[in-house]
Amino acid sequence: ENEFTLQPQDGRYVLLFQWLVGRFAALSGSDIPLAWWVVQLAAGVGLLVAVWSLLGAFFADARERILCFVLVAFSGGLEWLPWAARSLLPNAVHDRLLAVTWPLISWNTFESLFAPLSTLAYALVVSLLVIVLRGADKPGRRRHALGSLLVLLIYATHGYTALGLAGILGTTLVLGVARRRIARRALPMESASLLLLCLSFALPFALCVWQMQDPVFAASLGRAAAAEAAHRVWLWPLTQGLVLALAVIGLPTVWRRDDAPSRLLLGWLAGTALLANLPFFSPSRFLFLLHLPLCVAATIGIGLVREHGPAWARARATTLAALFALFATN
After folding, report:
1. Which one, of 170, 163, 162, 149, lies nearest residue 121 by Cα?
2. Ramachandran bin of 214, using left for φ above 0, alpha for ψ from -120 to 50, beta for the remaining angles
3. What is the pLDDT of residues 234-255, one digit of tens each?
4. Residues 39, 17: contact at Cβ < 8 Å?
5. What's the predicted TM-score (pTM) here?
6. DSSP codes joined into one string, 91-160
């Protein structure tokens, strides 16, 4: 139930994270605040472990995998610039920039870890994507059943993350099939798995329809699905900074590879970019999903700069400046 209203309600909220906190507190005999932080810490560690596992599908080289992991865990954009330039900017401009670069918007993975619901749900999403890639060439009933269960658990944890996952899977499927059809080639081997996962969203959809019969739940969902225009794509050069620039360098290589991980990466970026720029449904709630695939493409871009870039781009001074630009915000 929603404990912050006096309106009559049926109690149709499904809150997996809060349930885990309550179960842990009951089993351990600890207070709720301590149990909350323990479960949130476990969710954050679980997310990073899942990220490490996922990156193995993109990078065979251990150094590249470690580099990408560090980027995912700690890199940010250039938000520190307006933060540091407060005295140089008019108050109205500074306040506007401060509002759109607020860390709680979660422009990067490090900032997103403050939110326990999305952190736990994101850990489940990344785990599901690991299952998808590992079973791309050998799908089976157990994998599909586990994937369907994870979809339902993700929705029960954080509805926005579930919607983001639907966008990622659907866009990956559509782009992969369209590209192969245009080239008159066989469909991607992971198409069947992606289609079945997309169909499995019928379960959380049916649950949502049932929940909407409770007026309190329906009202809260209506307030959440608000329109906003504060976090559009033209802010990305500021909020993604050098990660975005390096990702642009790496993306042509990703496109040419046309393997299952690369197709997922392209669908992930396209689906998240679409959701994050919707004119409705609080698009900023999907921004935290953008950073990881950008970091993967940026890692590939770094490798290209090291191998083929001009001498000034590989100089020590440039490297130090790049490190500052990547990690100063966080």
Report:
1. 162
2. beta
3. 889 999 999 999 999 999 999 9
4. yes
5. 0.91
6. HHHHHHHHHHT-GGG--SHHHHTT-HHHHHHHHHHHHHHHHHHHTSSS--HHHHHHHHHHHHHHHHH-HH
